[in-house]
Amino acid sequence: MSVSDIGIIGLGKFGLQFGQTLVELGRKVIGVDANPENIKKAQHIIPYVYQADAADKEALQQLGFGDMSHVLVSVGDSIAASSMISMYLKELGVPQVWVKATNSDHQKLLLKIGVDEVFIPEHLAARQLANRVAMPGFISELPFAHDMSIKELIVRRWAGKTLRNIDLTNRFNVQVISIKKNGDQKFSFIPKADLMLEADDTLMVIGYNVALAKLDP
Fold this sequence. Notes:
By secondary structure, the chain is an alpha/beta fold. The chain has helices spanning 13-24, 36-42, 57-62, 79-91, 104-113, 121-134, 163-166, 168-172, 209-212; strands at residues 6-9, 29-33, 48-51, 70-73, 96-100, 117-119, 148-154, 175-180, 188-189, 202-208.
């Protein structure tokens, strides 16, 4: 498995749609589900799917989840299962574990475990709709060409260099649009060229998929 691979645990409606979108954006996705029916549906959409019990830490390790940069956990209404799987993923060293929560209490529990991003789909959809009603000109989604993407990069090799040093714009035609310093909760937009990068900083970049695939941060 590659660090750029994205894992999805739980291939129900949400997980499958998430995976399909990533595949369309040119990302390699590995999906896992214990339900054979979900596996059967996903096989035609996601190239790499495996039937396995994600609540088994050893199974996650054997499937290479510890080497992935991002893993989405979307295992339905089982708070216990999603919490245990999330804990195992963090123990395996996954930098970004994102989890679909069922309610606010579930969300609080997951954050205490150390999950990086927790979301409740209904809340996200409601906020987006409210923004569109309250602000008719509000841009909720930006249309991109099919061969372009916005990508998150976790800094490793670029630590100790500035944005000017790595020169992504001229070398790869990739633009850095924001940065989240290690330990910060929010992104800072339009970072300065002389900003020094540190290990585990997160860069948000935009560019063509072919160029993004060449980056080794």
